[in-house]
Amino acid sequence: MPATTSPAVPHLTLAQARRTALRAAGLDRARPGGPATARHVGAVVDRLGVVQIDSVNVFARAHLVPLYARLGAFDPALVDQAANRSPRRLVEAWAHMASFVRPETYRLLGWRRERYLHEAWGMVRDVPLQHAPEVEDIRTLLKEEGPLTAQQVHARLGAEHPPRPDEVWGWNWTVSKSVLEYLFFTGQAASAGRNGAFERRYDLVERVLPREVLAQPEPDEPDAVRALVATSIAALGVGTLRCVADYFRLRQAPAERALAELREEGLVEPVVVDGWGKGWRHTGATVPRTASARTLLSPFDPLVWERTRVEALFGVRYRIEIYTPAPKRVWGYYVLPFLLGDRIVALVDLKADRQDGVLRVTAAHRVDGPAERVPEELAAELRDAAAWLGLGDVVVADRDGRSRGDLVVPLTTALAR
């Protein structure tokens, strides 16, 4: 009998893979000009599947910038309404770190909550052993008075349950905060939204999730992981196993099994990307001929949060350097990539100086793109970002008049025009 041959694995050039990723992420074209609505915000969340939350507010809250990158100057109150009011369309979960997800996606993460002994970090994992009485008291308090912040819970119960002398909690957490984080991680409590100080307001899950979602059966782990991987590869367009697993912080072995099953279903296919190697592509992904976006990207944007992917696709070695000592920083403290077309062309260290009413550029480095075009385009983008943040001007200097990087002079000139 004649030998059978396996179908050839498709090849993509690096440029094709890059444009595929941008199209999947909703970053291949200019932002729409009209005002964004709740429907637009929901469409971005549906496309990405997950929006990471972080407390750092140097430029803007981390979860707002991916929406700005795709929608332009939208009203952040739209996110607050979706997350703080019933019926909620966004809820918090440990997805890709702390994140906003759709309530339906929250149900897909139930296996992680059940396996907290293997999935959570030590301070949360050890709470039932060290603070069983406090767990019961705080559960009862939430039932009777929720939603409550950690400070409010501590004010009510801190005197009754002070930490033992031998306890040292990270990040200056109180016992109340640690117990609440345990309840949150394990799904015994949920976030009813955030207050003006960005503190989580804890409440019972049944008072947070929409009724129709609560009524649905929770899928088992293999089915849930397969659904999460399907979301990941759709949002990525193309990526390696590492990229796909990292999206919801899955282990690679179950993610690989899920990809194999999705391949049988015709949802994904293996590909080889020149200069990157073996990967996977969503069968619905498309390759635009060109990309025309111009936007700043959050360090927590799904396009760039897996740093080896950034380096492979864009040729930029990008790291967030908040926790790096100042003398060792390469790009700056809170650095945002600047996307122009299908390239990351600059890295800018930004600070929203709300006291002085200006957006400060404390460092600006060109990493790609034509030298004559990047400063002009970046200047225009910074003006747009400043206007969105309610800041009156863009200043290329910190409060001491210092700035660094090879884009400082041409950017200053471009802003002066």
Description:
The protein is of the alpha+beta class and 417 residues long. It has 19 helices and 14 strands. It has helices at residues 14-25, 38-48, 65-71, 77-84, 103-108, 110-114, 116-119, 122-125, 127-130, 132-145, 150-157, 175-185, 211-214, 221-236, 241-247, 252-264, 307-314, 374-388, 408-416; strands at 11-12, 51-52, 91-95, 97-101, 190-194, 200-203, 238-239, 268-273, 277-282, 294-296, 335-340, 343-353, 358-366, 393-395. The strands form 4 sheets. It has a 5-stranded mixed β-sheet. Helix 11 (150-157) packs across helix 12 and helix 14 packs across helix 16. It starts with 10 loop residues before the first strand and ends with a helix.
Helix/strand-derived category reads: alpha+beta
Mean pLDDT metric: 92
Strand content: 15-25%
Distance, first to last CA = 75 Å
Radius of gyration: 23 Å
Runs with pLDDT <50, length 5+? 1-5, 168-172
The percent range for helix content is 25-40%
The largest sheet, given as strand count, sense and whether it forms a barrel, is: 5 strands, mixed
The number of helical runs is 19
Strand order of the largest sheet: 10-11-12-13-14
